Amino acid sequence: EFEILTGIKSFGKIKSIEFNVMHGRKMSGLVDRLKRNGYQTSAVIAADKGYYNSPNAYKSIGFDSLVFLKEVYPFSENDAVVFDGDLFDYSRRKIESSRAGEGKPQLNYILGMYGHLPYQRDTKKRPDRVYVKGGNEKVRKISNQFYYRTREVAKYIDFLLDHDPDSLIYITSDHLPPIITRDIRYKYNIYQNISVATAGLI
Looking at domain 2-171, which of 3.40.720.10, 3.50.30.30, 3.40.50.620, 3.40.20.10 is its CATH number? Predict the structure, then answer.
């Protein structure tokens, strides 16, 4: 996230997460450069203001508008974190109702949290669609979350392309969900499997 928004390599030399040492002072980077070239920039974060050092960090990065979704939007506590579908629905309504752009190009940055431990899901709204042999609970939870997440991503991409066929859409993830078990793991370790990471959203 730091590298994408700033264009600066994250070496982890200043604590493990550079966001933690930002103080809100303006810095140069991708967002600032886009603003200087006429873009309207906004961010929707599926967390509250206590997530790391977010208020100061995003202020330094320079978004025109910033929403911490967990503080302004009612979401299902059964999901533990904001469901991606709720996040994308909020962003979609924000884009549809926005008059501020008035022909200006826009950067809409969205950060989701769904899919983290303990992989909790509102099973009344989102029942199991993937069934796993062997009874591994983490694999079952991760697989079903992945089903619902990718479905919502696909719907959101369809909306963006309908709204603006010339949209540039970039999707990334910091890592795959750790399974953390002796018997089942990704090809390289508990986090990394290049084939899964590459094919995940295609």
Answer: 3.40.720.10
